[in-house]
Specification:
Blueprint: E1 20-22, E2 30-32, E3 46-53, E4 55-57, E5 68-75, E6 82-89, E7 104-107, E8 113-118, E9 130-136, E10 143-144, E11 149-155, E12 166-173, E13 185-191, E14 201-204, E15 223-226, E16 232-236
Parallel strand pairs: 3-10, 4-11
Antiparallel strand pairs: 1-2, 3-5, 5-8, 6-7, 6-9, 9-11, 12-13, 13-16, 14-15
Length: 249
């Protein structure tokens, strides 16, 4: 392209990595331009943890122990494998009252959730009920979010009480925008007592807040189903708009 006023010749060569500029005065000179790409997001991911199944028993079904479970999730870049560290406390002892846990969990590349089973050792919890308290350890590679600690409870070598589900819900992504990059997100969990995990469980919920269902965010049905053999429904995407600062409860 020629600039009639200056006599300069501009040559732009889109070769995928750069473009070049050439001047026609006293011979060509060249300036290389970097690709027009956005800078990489270096914000550390936010990591959180809850007990997705907070009831466990060494007695279990009389033969096999009934396990507890923690679920970890990360918000942010999930493209690479990622390790999170935790500390254990409570009245139950790691490797004595339950199978030894290492102190870390690893998210596979592409995964936003990972789980950790807590398996009581049969015959160890013979006295009072015991607890396993897990807390995220601080690390420069991530930020601990709102849910940083939770507890799994062992019932002492007897069947777990109650025949009903113990359900909980957590906001794993508490903010959302119509401009993205992602919708809000909730996780529903069930602690199953001595009930079988071989069938699904449907949980009903109500919605309130200043945002209107089906108007300010995509319609939510009022129920969610946890699949058979699972302790949780991994995610529910409200698709919140929040263009007027609405909140969903």
């Amino acid at each position: 392209m020629a600039d009639q006023g200056s006599g300069n010749i501009y040559k732009f060569t889109p070769d995928g990595a750069r473009s070049t500029f050439a001047s026609g005065l006293n011979g060509p000179t060249f300036i290389a331009f970097a690709p027009n790409t956005a800078p990489a997001d270096t914000t550390p991911p936010t990591v959180q943890v809850v007990a997705s199944d907070y009831l466990a028993s060494g007695y279990g079904d009389g033969t096999n122990a009934d396990t507890g479970e923690f679920v970890f999730w990360r918000n942010g870049d999930a493209n690479t494998e990622f390790t999170v560290y935790y500390a254990l406390s409570g009245t139950a002892s790691n490797g004595v009252d339950y199978e030894a846990l290492s102190g870390s969990v690893t998210f596979p590349a592409g995964a936003t959730y990972t789980t950790l089973k807590v398996t009581p050792i049969r015959g160890r919890t013979t006295g009072d009920d015991e607890t396993v308290v897990l807390a995220l350890r601080p690390d420069a590679a991530y930020t601990a979010g709102r849910y940083q600690t939770d507890t799994v409870r062992f019932y002492s070598d007897r069947a777990l009480p109650g025949g009903s589900w113990h359900a909980r819900v957590f906001a794993t992504k508490e903010t959302a925008s119509e401009d993205g990059p992602a919708p809000g997100e909730l996780i529903f969990t069930r602690a199953h007592g001595f009930r079988s995990m071989s069938f699904s469980a449907t949980l009903n919920y109500t919605i309130s807040g200043t945002a209107n269902n089906g108007v300010d965010y995509e319609t939510l049905s009022g129920s969610v189903t946890i699949p058979a053999t699972q302790n949780r429904n991994d995610v529910l995407h409200p698709g919140l708009s929040q263009r007027h600062g609405h909140r969903l409860h």
